[in-house]
């Protein structure tokens, strides 16, 4: 019997379901509570009733109807808004999750389902030994990208058993107190900078983690795992609208996995979301470098990013070289001291180019701004007629390029002066055909003005191309990143410039190579395997001397040189427009692209952006730029929160510097990306 005093007017019954594995114990409990009972008191009362002796420290209350965690244990039920009709679920905060990594390997590990995704990704990256977790996020594959797989699965008779790397004993956030030591700049390098293998003296750093030497090699080394059949089964975007589907499933970094409908043992993709790879260091980043390389490799194989045939063969040659080194024991036991200094120097140069230059030479930046002057050919596309190609005397100064009839008239007024700040710079190169072109898309009031420059040789092209790239970002040739940019362009051209060496490919049949593993399906259909082997071996001559990690960095560098690199596409409808467009989001700009032709219409730079916000009622993103330019659009292929987070995320990443320690201002990230929903 319950006394009448306990039936006070303020008390009521609350049903709580407990997630436990004791079959003989009930799972539903009816508790009599009052509105001033705090969440911590409710959990204590519940545990006392369950009468199972176990560690309940990881358990918390999940409110099913509101899809939210009740984590503030000092809040009362009244403050949380919990009433008698609430369905509460007492469950663990850390649950198993399957993650498909960029190298297509699946790992299974324990992840916090109650932390914001930003924090959960940080914990995952600590377990996997990937620095700079802010560059990655979790992606849920959209139904469209899965449909093709499902059709194939129905046709296949034998079920495919996936090889899963089980890290289920991994320490979760509470057990990672020692992990920051992995990222300390003063500690001994944990990887051999040449071969990428864990340094034997420091493998003890993994002792508290399930990332043993064997598991580390699975994550840090490239393993061939594709065939034409595998490629054919995977989703390959054909149009810009298809590419937009790839970016629709990014999870909200400011909400937890559980709040976004992710269940225990679901599969998500762990991917590099932001294409600004900061402070890549072979001594600490073997796993990170390999996963970036793998993401780049699959993007090229599945034609998520376009490249020319010449470029495809370079990528194929580098992949072939990397796979050879990864399989050979030489890569594992590479300890030749004489070559270390040379490789270290090459890698430090590569680091500079991958980071966009290091502002070391301050004097160079404050002296007179250098200029370029030379004869180039100007190509202007004309409607209904052939292109007009004429040589002019060009002068490049600051961020503008002017051209004159000839060298003698350069003292007077130019025929035209083109301001390249904010323009799109697209390479138009075919080394074999001696074609070195620069396509400039210059923003004007009603769209983009198209101009082509033709250079005579590689050196001239590298100097002018580097100047154009810097000018488009608002930088001049006095900037310390100019010379590394020239060097990067020349090294990429050098890789493209291979000659047929009879002794190298005298007998392609004797080479054990599966060319279809290294090129996209388009080329396996276009050429016979023998032809592909011969062409890949030709290109391989220029890269065959490279150590393993350098080859991966070269691959990443070549990927970064592609015109479409770093663009994430979304189908949008601009305010006042009657048709859909594609919006490309990059690390420094937004591009409006014609959905039918793929031509850029307008570019807006983040550096000119004053503010951006979202009208959550009509799901419209509004952005204001300098000079009273404002745009607004609704997103059709994804939630507008994803684009809002992309813009804020890139601005957040631009605030990073090498001087600061590697702890992130998480509050600033959420302030820039969260929005006020």
TrEMBL record:
It comes from Falco tinnunculus. It comes from the Eukaryota. Residues 377-473 form the PH domain. Its main location: other. One of its GO terms (biological process) is integrin-mediated signaling pathway. GO terms for cellular component: cell projection; focal adhesion. This is Fermitin family member 1. Pfam families: FERM_M, Kindlin_2_N. The keyword Cell membrane does not apply. SUPFAM superfamilies: PH domain-like (SSF50729), Second domain of FERM (SSF47031). InterPro entries: Band_41_domain, FERM_2, FERM_central, FERM_CS, Kindlin/fermitin, Kindlin_2_N, PH-like_dom_sf, PH_domain. Belongs to the kindlin family. The keyword Manganese does not apply. It is found in: Cell junction; Cell projection. Keywords: Cell adhesion, Cell junction, Cell projection. GO terms for molecular function: integrin binding.
């Amino acid at each position: 019997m319950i006394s009448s005093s306990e039936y006070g007017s303020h008390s009521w019954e609350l049903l709580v379901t407990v997630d436990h594995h004791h079959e003989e114990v009930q799972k539903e409990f009816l508790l009599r509570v009052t509105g001033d009972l705090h969440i911590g008191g409710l959990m204590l009362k519940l545990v006392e009733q369950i009468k199972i002796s176990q560690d309940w420290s990881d358990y918390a209350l999940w409110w099913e109807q509101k899809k939210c965690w009740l984590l503030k244990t000092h809040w009362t039920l009244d403050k949380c808004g919990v009433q008698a009709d609430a369905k509460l679920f007492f469950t663990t905060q850390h649950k198993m999750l399957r993650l498909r990594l960029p190298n297509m390997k699946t790992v299974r590990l324990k992840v916090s389902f109650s932390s914001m995704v930003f924090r959960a990704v940080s914990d995952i990256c600590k377990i996997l030994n990937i620095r700079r977790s802010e560059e990655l996020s979790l992606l849920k594959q959209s139904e469209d990208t899965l449909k093709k797989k499902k059709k194939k699965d129905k046709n296949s008779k034998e079920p495919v058993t996936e090889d899963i790397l089980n890290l289920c004993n991994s320490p979760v956030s509470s057990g990672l107190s020692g992990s920051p030591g992995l990222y300390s700049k003063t500690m001994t390098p944990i990887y051999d900078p040449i071969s990428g293998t864990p340094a034997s003296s420091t493998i003890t750093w993994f002792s508290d983690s399930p990332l043993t030497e064997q598991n580390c090699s699975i994550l840090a080394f490239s393993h061939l795992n594709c065939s034409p059949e595998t490629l054919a089964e995977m989703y390959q975007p054909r149009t810009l609208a298809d590419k937009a589907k790839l970016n629709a499933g990014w999870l909200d970094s400011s909400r937890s996995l559980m709040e976004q409908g992710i269940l225990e043992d679901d599969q998500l993709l762990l991917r590099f979301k932001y294409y600004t790879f900061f402070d890549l260091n072979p001594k600490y980043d073997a796993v990170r470098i390999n996963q970036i390389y793998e993401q780049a490799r699959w993007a090229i194989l599945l034609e998520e990013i376009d490249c020319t045939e010449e470029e495809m063969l370079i990528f194929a040659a580098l992949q072939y070289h990397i796979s050879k080194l990864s399989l050979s024991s030489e890569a594992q036991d590479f300890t030749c001291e004489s070559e270390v200094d040379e490789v270290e120097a090459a890698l430090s140069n590569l680091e500079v180019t991958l980071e966009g230059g290091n502002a070391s030479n301050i004097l160079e930046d404050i002296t007179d701004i250098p200029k370029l002057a030379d004869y180039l050919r100007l190509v202007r596309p004309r409607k209904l007629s052939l292109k007009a190609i004429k040589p002019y005397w060009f002068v490049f100064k600051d961020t503008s390029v002017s051209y004159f009839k000839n060298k003698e008239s350069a003292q007077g007024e130019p025929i035209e002066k083109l301001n390249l700040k904010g323009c799109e710079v697209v390479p138009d190169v075919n080394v074999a055909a001696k074609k070195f072109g620069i396509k400039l898309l210059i923003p004007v009031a009603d769209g983009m003005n198209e101009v082509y420059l033709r250079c005579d040789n590689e050196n001239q092209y590298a100097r002018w191309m580097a100047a154009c790239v810097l000018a488009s970002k608002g930088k001049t040739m006095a900037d310390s990143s100019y010379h590394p940019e020239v060097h990067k362009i020349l090294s990429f051209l050098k890789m493209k410039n291979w000659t047929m060496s009879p002794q190298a490919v005298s007998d392609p049949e004797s080479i054990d190579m599966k060319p279809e593993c290294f090129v996209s399906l388009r080329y396996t259909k276009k050429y016979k395997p023998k032809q592909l082997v011969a062409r890949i071996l030709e290109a391989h001559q220029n890269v065959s001397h490279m150590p393993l990690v350098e080859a991966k960095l070269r691959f990443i560098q070549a990927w970064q040189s592609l015109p479409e690199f770093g663009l994430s596409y979304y189908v949008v409808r601009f305010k006042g427009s009657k048709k859909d467009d594609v919006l490309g989001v990059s690390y420094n700009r937004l591009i409006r692209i014609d959905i039918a032709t793929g031509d850029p219409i307008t570019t807006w730079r983040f550096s000119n952006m004053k503010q951006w916000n979202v009208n959550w009622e009509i799901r419209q993103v509004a952005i204001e730029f300098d000079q009273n330019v404002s745009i607004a659009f609704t997103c059709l292929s994804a939630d507008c929160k994803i684009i809002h987070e992309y813009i804020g995320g890139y601005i957040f990443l631009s605030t990073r510097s090498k001087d600061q320690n590697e702890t992130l201002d998480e509050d600033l990230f959420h302030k820039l990306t969260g929005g006020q929903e």
